[in-house]
């Protein structure tokens, strides 16, 4: 079987993958991002490329249609709106998961042909503060470093980054470097104790949004202890005095950390020349996100620790092509190819190159404003591509209403049903990963090819072509006449050449004569190039700026809600949700809550809680843990309404934004109240087909034998057999019922032709039985009464909650192995195989070992 060399479609690490049509997925040993490694999500890609749930034909008003009708409808609606209300009455909302070719064309169509800059992207929720911070400091949006710096550094400071779960292959590269050089130090700055702490020598539990105070404190410490690089500052940096004065006016105690912890961190930073500061959403997604970025950059600029091997700030990108989107200018306040909308010479050159009838001359609406404009009736036609804003935007319920309020909505997606697609007038079927060709740029500016190894399913077309087809239907055919993504890429590189005289950081000349088919992963401007060691920046005077930043006044009263990611799910779960392996890690939306807060509220581990803010409400499983500090809550962002009724966390989050970048503050919601959610009944079902859950709380997920559902109901049904049949969609299945009135439990098994199709367990308290057992019994021909016992089949021990997703190793198996003498992560791997494939679960293995050893020592 020949394997195709392609790139993982998930995170910004940008790992090379060898993939085959038979489902083979391997890490590409020759790709410089991962050298053969993959994480759990990458390893499970083969489970996500089947056609279940795919959108295979265009749909108009919910009815399948041919392409010409769908394209005509989109072009007509956009054309009418532009004619009647002007170009700013239409908008595109796109995604860092589009390929560069798709992104380039969406931007070209909106900015050069429609003549508006109303194209914004989910990167607004992701990277906008880093972009704004880079531009303020450097004059351009430049990531100075390369991944090798993470291995060469003597100190890595992770700020607001759960690298172990979100950039697992980079985490593994750092872990390997630290093992080879034990003197290397890692500091993790996060209000939560995450899996990433396992690599850290020091965990600073900063107060939410205490980062500006922390880094302002570092800047004044560096100045006070003679660690500024006066030569570098004199030659290359402006604004040092003002930035330092502002830093000195800050009380570092506002970071919420004890003085000795601050001092230890400041000393370590000051004494280590090779420092890389890696930062991500704990920095960007904040009302002071841009200031946080500049507080970090100030420290690197003042010490000249930038652009040299093993030193520099490093904003890691989230999505596979967040960086490519920034390059093509896909944000509402950029033009194209790192050029500026406000600059008339830039606009003229781009318009001439595109030979376009018009060019936008002012910034468009940023994501939150864009959906506000939808709500206010100002947007008459909206096209959403490759993103699911009805779930991922703050104030998600109001965003869903805003989308519904737009007279015409088109959605391009690979899936037939998403929370956003359900609001569309026209659905456009896109080819997905494995079926499409193009390029992506990763966090270290490396451009890699995605290559198709599967045929396009049904009528699906690649996004670049859908955009070109709509453009043609709008009358712009000549400028959008491409036969392949290679032609689009060549035009993008040619635009780079045409705008070279403007002297930007972006330099794609390396790709000028590239053979697209054979393109190998390469960094711009050239491999291993770092920026700024030479002190050449992109402000008009050629210098960098240190920016004075003020630590925000923080109100620590009440509960605050922090949100983020799980190890094995990707965003709104349209793809990772298809994998039983990935679903097994954490199968329900949950709220992490400190034991003291849980006690005060009156909720126990495993209960349900109702969470309220002034925006909305969610019902979540409470996960009581001191991983979160007292007063702080954490909930994952992932669950859409389609798989978790009541579990969409963005329903709670207010659309507060950073004033400079427009990025929403998704990490800190105030005014949160949590109460126990008392249901009349709690249920768990394992079943063969997708269940139909209508209870106020209901979360469904895939399992190895079909599906499972966690439920909580407010009305007691008359008849449990009928309820089970209706949830399992099996009106005629043979029931077996066991009811225990004393302990308030009911169990129903449904079978057809002697095969167990579904088992329902109901209780007046949260159901505690082994999910793995119930799941494993579905599809078997065991006697129904045995299935109702809720235990594993004979000779099969219950493995417990899944820890290693790749090899399906559960917690009970691991604890048994520890008790039998395994004392290290490696030993656990030898005995159980856990952690020996992708390694993403190694931090959890280490934690289990530490916990169990403590317990055994205490006994
Ligand atoms: N498994 C998985 N991996 C992913 C993704 C996914 O969906 N799933 N998505 C990808 C994308 S698009 C992105 S953007 C990245 C995101 O990658 P990360 O940014 O690493 O992930 P998050 O979980 O969003 O947030 C990181 C951490 O910020 C912390 N934090 C919250 N508030 C503060 C604060 O005030 N200060 C500090 N210092 N820290 C704070 C949170 O507690 C959290 O642990 O992940 C990428 N990788
Ligand atoms: N509370 C909270 N909210 C957050 C965050 C947070 O940390 N906390 N993080 C934010 C961040 S950083 C991000 S990046 C966003 C991500 O949020 P979204 O972008 O909304 O999430 P995804 O689930 O990745 O949506 C991608 C969509 O594109 C579809 N798709 C997949 N492949 C293709 C393709 O090739 N073509 C087309 N046309 N469609 C395709 C998928 O089926 C899916 O519907 O969420 C943001 N929202
Ligand atoms: S770290 Fe995992 S999700 Fe990210 S690119 Fe690599 S394999 Fe894909
Ligand atoms: Mo992101």
Automatic annotation (TrEMBL):
PROSITE patterns: 4FE4S_MOW_BIS_MGD, MOLYBDOPTERIN_PROK_1. GO terms for cellular component: membrane; oxidoreductase complex. Pfam families: Fer2_BFD, Molybdop_Fe4S4, Molybdopterin, Molydop_binding. The keyword Cell wall biogenesis/degradation does not apply. One of its GO terms (molecular function) is metal ion binding. InterPro entries: Asp_de-COase-like_dom_sf (IPR009010), BFD-like_2Fe2S-bd_dom (IPR007419), BFD-like_2Fe2S-bd_dom_sf (IPR041854), CT_Nitrate-R-NapA-like (IPR041957), MoPterin_dinucl-bd_dom (IPR006657), Mopterin_OxRdtase (IPR006656), Mopterin_OxRdtase_4Fe-4S_dom (IPR006963), MopterinOxRdtase_cofactor_BS (IPR027467). GO terms for biological process: cellular respiration; nitrate assimilation. Keywords: 4Fe-4S, Iron, Iron-sulfur, Metal-binding, Molybdenum, Nitrate assimilation, Oxidoreductase. Residues 1-53 form the 4Fe-4S Mo/W bis-MGD-type domain. Its cofactor is [4Fe-4S] cluster; Mo-bis(molybdopterin guanine dinucleotide). Belongs to the prokaryotic molybdopterin-containing oxidoreductase family. NasA/NapA/NarB subfamily. This is Molybdopterin-dependent oxidoreductase. It comes from Sulfitobacter geojensis. The lineage of its organism: Bacteria, Pseudomonadati, Pseudomonadota, Alphaproteobacteria, Rhodobacterales.
